[in-house]
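Morning, I've got a small favour to ask if you have a moment. I've been staring at a protein lately and its backbone has me curious. You're getting the sequence in one-letter code plus the fold written as tokens. I've dropped the whole record in just underneath, so have a look:
=====
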Amino acid sequence: MLFMDILILFSAILSSSWIILQGAYYTDKVIMDKLNGSFSFRVSIIVAVKDEPKELIEKLVENLSRIEYDNYEVIIVSDDSEEKFEELKALPVPPNFSLFRRDFQGGRKAGALNYGIEKSTGEILIFLDSEARVEPDFLSRILPYMNKYEAVAMRLRIRNPESKLQRLYSEMTDFSMNSLFKGRWLRGLPIFPNGSAFSIRKETVVKVGYWREGIIAEDLEMGIRLFLKGVTVAYADDVVVETLAPFSWKDLFEQMKRWAYGSGQLMIYSLSMARKGIKGIEGIIYANQWGIYPLFILMLLIAGLVYPFLTSSILAWIFGLSIFLLSSFLLSIRSRMEEYDIRIPTLMLTAFLTGYFLGALRTKFKWKVTPKIGINDDLWIPWEVNLISFLFLLAGTLDITGEDLVRDVTHGAILLIISLIVLAIP
């Protein structure tokens, strides 16, 4: 009993601590960084695309062509089919834009980005996604940071959120930028770049060995590597890159599952940050947050499934559940989100559990581009939800039929309630 109690309490404390930290990091404070406004950099903006609508790329070209800066180029690297690429080639582009197609499409997105680096002529490299949109003074804002720092992460903002899902995602993104980026930056903690809005000196990316190909979360891996090599990634809160939210719950689920897979895939590598002390340990927690979020709920499931071979006490379950729910409640208050939907925590639970587990096992992963247009599919239920709900149902049934009436009925009831909550989708 003591062994399982320790595991349950440890998982509850770890999951709750990260939830509480996010709330503690959150800040509305305006960052005033002393920057040198004089610069004359040659800039290369690199965008990797695959299976994106032609109209989206056309609007990207139109947006980036309006940048008010003389010395920059835009490199679009396509991993599309030859037929799709011919459509893109027909798009009118300014002279400082180049469109390439990779004949050998290995290395996933990182391979395409590395291809773009080889084709680039700029001293400063900026990596954006195809749906990114920037203001005309974008380079005038980011380049003063590049005078001072080797690498800079920029603020993401969701543009034109229309549906409830998109408004939820927009609020989640704003909270993440104020907490995990701005809040952590002000506390001197390592910043892990978002590949959708990241700038780095070319000499730096060459020095550290380019993007690591074949990795799902190539931006997280790059952040870990830069931290280990002593390169500071700054955060520019006033440099905004607008992007789009997933259109449907299915798209959101697949995106969160991909994040979790990438985190699980890098779990062992991320542990090397421990040699950097307290900041490194916090970095490990950040890098594995997709596995830490659902860890406590996972331990309750395991405790239910291993009964009666290993038992645990009511006290451990109640205490663990209390601090987990309290920390989640405090975070919900701190986040100041106006929208709420029970599908968000249930999607996170199932997507993170399955994605992180599969990533840690290094199973085969098929990359799915997150569509930015589509049909609303509120009636869609991922198979992972059904599986996890069934496992909680099975664990609850095993426990509730045990010999210790009070303990086993309590454990079983908790597991059965979780099973029902998971099925809150849709």
